Structures are given as structure tokens and as C-alpha cells.
């Protein structure tokens, strides 16, 4: 049993690396043959652009700005969503209303919230708030589902022992629902990166979203592609980090 899991992990890493390599080769082939037009560069074109004197530092500053906004939004949105889910458990009468409020807020397009947020939290804070909203819904749904994991029989035992709602929450509901909550965080991390990029479209001074807008307006194809790939890579990194945390919580609490 101890050797099967590492073998599966190594096989999964090998398959993932093979898939990424094949995807890069296919994309490079499309660029070399011109099947998608001149706006589809080759891998060598992008590497040559990254090797320039200004491209690397420019992208690193943008990734740092977007990563910071996404991380702050992820933490704020996750904590707020978890607090609202806990409130629905402690005060069951509020649960239906909180569910509807979360659904309505999630239904509003993030792009429509940007102009409103600029006038309230400022241009620099918009990306963080949009990232928090993007991440919050996934955490709320996961937390609501996870905290409802214990069955009635388990909850009856706590009631017979005289446990309060807070004690039941901390000793029963939260440990049982933690794997599901972390699963929601896994989905929320890439959403926070996307929200930060969208929020940067509304006047941020730096970030991947700023590079995307500038590259589109000035038809800078290599910059556009490298910025887009940087956003994808940042989302993938955030996802993989949370996947590792999810595996640990599953082993520890199930």
C-alpha cells in the first residue's frame, strides 16, 4: 500500500508533463504553419521576446502585482464566505436568505462591478475586491455543504451531551467538513487570479490585466501571448498548491 500511492503520483506527474509537452508542440506547429493567422506566434517567437532586455522584468512586476491582489482577494473572499456560512449554521433562520444573497451576487457579471468599485474602493483596490468576490462564492458553497456533512445521529449525540451550537460547530461540523471546504478553496484560487486580472482592467497601474489591455490596444502580439500565458501559469500554480493541501486534509480528516 505504501508503494502504490507514490507510483500513482509519479505516473500522474509523467502524464501531465507529457500532455503539456504535446500541447506546446501542437501550438508551435499551428504557429509555424500559419493555420491560425499571423496573430498566432511560434514558441521560438515567444522565447525570443522573453529574452529581450525589458520583457522579463516587465512580466515579473506584472505577475507580482496580480499575484498580490489575487492572494489578498482569495484570503478576504474565503474568510468572508466562511464567516457567512458559519452564520447560517449558528442561526439557521438566516440560512435561506444567505443562500439567495450569495446566488444573486454570483449572478452579477464581474465586469459590471468594476466601474462601481472604482468609485468606492479606488482603482488600486478594485482588483483585490473583484478577486474576493470571484473566490467567495466557491468557498461559500463548499463551506455550506461541508458544515452540513455530519448526520443527525452524530448531532444528536452532541445534543444529549449538552453541547452548544458553537461547540458542535468546532468539534463536529468543522472537522468533518474541512476536506470539502478545502476543495472549495481549490476552485476559488484560480477564480481569484481571474478576478484580479479583470479588476486590473479598470485603471490599475500595473498587473497582468494592464499588460493585456495595453497589448491589445497596441497590437503587441508577443506581449499579449506572454501575459495571457503568465495569467494561466499563475492560476495553475495556485490550483496545484491547493490540491496538495486538499490531499493532506483528506488523509487527515477522513
UniProtKB/TrEMBL annotation:
Chief location category: membrane
Subcellular location: Cell membrane
Keywords: Cell membrane, Membrane, Transmembrane, Transmembrane helix, Transport
Transmembrane feature ranges: 69-94, 101-122, 128-149, 223-245
PANTHER family (UniProt xref): ABC TRANSPORTER PERMEASE PROTEIN HI_0355-RELATED (PTHR30151:SF20), ALKANE SULFONATE ABC TRANSPORTER-RELATED, MEMBRANE SUBUNIT (PTHR30151)
Protein name as catalogued: ABC transporter permease subunit
The keyword Signal belongs to this UniProt entry's keyword annotation: no
Entry's family note: Belongs to the binding-protein-dependent transport system permease family.
InterPro entries hit by this protein: MetI-like, MetI-like_sf
ATP-binding among keywords: no
Membrane topology: Multi-pass membrane protein
Species name: Pseudonocardia kongjuensis
Domain of life: Bacteria
Family annotation (Pfam families): BPD_transp_1 (PF00528)
Residue intervals of the ABC transmembrane type-1 domain: 59-246
